[in-house]
Write a structure and sequence with these properties.
Domain HTH lacI-type (chains A, B): 15-69
CATH class of the largest domain in chain A: Alpha Beta
Protein name (chains A, B): LacI family DNA-binding transcriptional regulator
Radius of gyration of chain A: 26 Å
GO molecular function (chains A, B): DNA binding
CATH superfamily of the largest domain in chain A: Response regulator
Number of domains of chain A: 3
Largest interface: A-B, 64 and 64 residues
Number of strands of chain A: 12
Structural class of chain A: alpha/beta
Oligomer: homodimer
Strand content of chain A: 15-25%
Organism (chains A, B): Microbacterium insulae
Strand order of the largest sheet of chain A: 2-1-3-4-5-11
CATH topology of the largest domain in chain A: Rossmann fold
CATH architecture of the largest domain in chain A: 3-Layer(aba) Sandwich
InterPro entries (chains A, B): HTH_LacI, LacI/GalR-like_sensor, Lambda_DNA-bd_dom_sf, Peripla_BP_I
Chain lengths: 343, 343
DNA sequence: CTGAAAGCGCTTACAG
DNA sequence: CTGAAAGCGCTTACAG
């Protein structure tokens, strides 16, 4: 009853290279070369061995290969919180991209703590991962350990860069994103603006805030308040509280993420203020939430697939070609206009 | 400049067991036993070897150990979509739990496709994972391959069960959850009810709908409409469209997840209908969204940590103790009352 | 209690 | 072009 049905037969228990070699009547060395498509094996040998391997359902044991080659075809990835939708989308995209290149993803969540991040990096080393993709938990505190790991194992930073460059980086172009947003708000006659974004723990927090300040100035918009904390819905609600406590609502509020924007709008609504009626709000990221929340969000849509593709391609080229100057790849987001800035 | 700083020294490149043995002046066999705390090693040997190992920064090579022991201390997990917040929370909780038991998480996303799920299961086998945690993409179609994999590798189903039991299962008690919700609505004088939930692809889709139908009947509430699709915000919006097209709004709408509820409420609002003014809405899952969305959601809060803890404990006991009857562990959710049902 | 040796499954010089 | 052998780093019978 619990016996595997016909289909289960295809999934046999551990057919080994020596089984294939025996069945094909060759040495395991030849079998290995034929399977790997190495030079110096006759064409007929290749055909024969592969047929036998297929018949037996042979699959190379990645553990043995890893021990022998010192390479596991495993890539470790560390995210601060998998629960943030943007990170989840990024992980998803990176996982796809990795599979396409023949790698598997070992995922770890640092919960935003540098110590945990370091512990996980250590485990990745132990596991002989071929490369590491990291969204650093802190642009400064993450530096030292990332640097030393990066000296040994190909590593790429994604979405967030450490303060001092220590590896390749791929992320969104915050400058471009905020320019699209600020110029859009300027066209909407916005004169005063509040900011609700991430703190200095991440490069995005730093860059988005700096861009907003500068671009607002360039466009004769004054930044009347700034609240900076995490990238969560709750932080958005807290930003709304701070704003409400201050007594005046600016013409618009620029949020550092869609999550923040949503928390902000929801809390404002609780207090009787409607968006976009009473103030305009913009987000950052783009995704399902931005499309279905009401009001739909005006936001800078992150090029998630492109970020994932470039991050993996950087990593793979580091793995294969090794050294070289650190690359820094900034990908432009696109402005998506929603109801949150449309009166 | 790119040279690792002092700290990097602690992370040396591959100190091997034979390095430790040499330094301690013993055989690698003894070194291995001392480190593993096996019996038949003198206490002083244990102390000496461990000191040397610590001094040298030795860390066992999990790849070599895996090859030798046929066990990788790796657990594979397959989720349908990491982008659904509830799954993200579950993955997070399970990862923590796994680490606590000394396992690492190999994560794969099936994107809801059985073929992809099967492919990933195959890769897990190849990697010699010690166990598998799966949220099946389809209660029926996922069955055959899961069954044959489960015959070889300890496996536990989590959150969603396949139609025929083929492994241990841990998930929320849908019956209890819907009872809490329906009785709450009954107390709110609800007489007619619409349902917007998941389709029959998941056990939750089946069970939640069945529970609602039966419990509504028991409480003199008539189910006037049912829309069943995915567990996404977009599906919630589509459900709202269907409801609006039908021309009448029931007293309340029971959603199969918070995502659905949020999409539903947002779309209703676009059309001028307010919750809870025009109809009550309930969700299912509980999490940040339920708390910060406006109106806050009345929802059945999933015992995520308990589910994760039990799933891992089931898996670990299967790994260590092996065979035994399939267990089915249903954990009760709690009712959280929000503004979406409070007039 | 300790050590020499075998072996997990693979790949790759090294001979032939 | 093919095979015998070494070796990746570990653990565990098997002797002593």
């Amino acid at each position: 009853m619990a016996r595997p049905c016909g289909r289960g037969a295809a999934i046999a228990t551990s057919v080994t290279l020596s089984d294939v070699a025996a069945e094909a009547g060759v040495s395991i060395a030849t079998a290995s070369r034929a399977l790997a498509g190495k030079p110096r094996v006759s064409q007929e040998m290749i055909v024969r061995v592969r047929e036998v391997a297929a018949k037996l359902g042979y699959r190379v044991n990645p553990v043995a290969r890893a021990l022998r080659e010192g390479s596991s075809r495993l890539i470790g990835m560390i995210v601060p919180v998998i629960g943030i939708p943007f990170f989840a989308r990024l992980v998803d995209a990176i996982e796809d991209e990795l599979n396409r290149s023949g790698y598997e993803l070992l995922l770890a969540d640092s919960h935003g703590f540098v110590e945990e991040e370091n512990r996980r990096l250590q485990v990745f080393r132990d596991r002989r991962v071929d490369g590491i993709i990291v969204i650093p938990s802190d642009r400064k505190a993450s530096g030292p350990v990332l640097r030393s790991v990066s000296a040994e194992i190909p590593l790429v930073e994604v979405d967030r860069a450490t303060a001092k460059p220590l590896a390749d980086f791929v992320g969104v172009d915050n400058e471009v994103g905020m320019r699209l947003i600020i110029e859009h708000l300027r066209d909407r006659q916005v004169k005063t603006l509040g900011y609700a974004g991430g703190d200095d723990a991440s490069s995005n927090g730093v860059e988005r805030f700096a861009s907003v300040q500068r671009l607002a100035g360039d466009n004769d918009i004054s930044v009347t308040s700034a609240f900076r904390s995490e990238y969560s819905i709750a932080a958005g609600a807290a930003a709304a509280d701070a704003l409400l406590a201050s007594g005046v609502l600016p013409d618009a509020i620029v949020a550092g993420s869609d999550q923040i924007a949503v928390g902000l709008i929801a809390r404002l609504r609780e207090h009787g203020f409607e968006v976009p009626r009473d103030t305009l709000v913009t987000g950052f990221d783009g995704g399902e939430l931005a499309d279905v929340f009401w009001p739909t969000l005006t936001t800078a849509v992150q090029p998630v697939s492109a970020i994932a593709a470039d991050a993996v391609s950087f990593l793979v080229s580091r793995i294969n070609e090794g050294e070289g100057a650190f690359r820094r790849n900034l990908l432009a987001p696109e402005l998506q206009i929603g109801a949150s800035t449309t009166r």
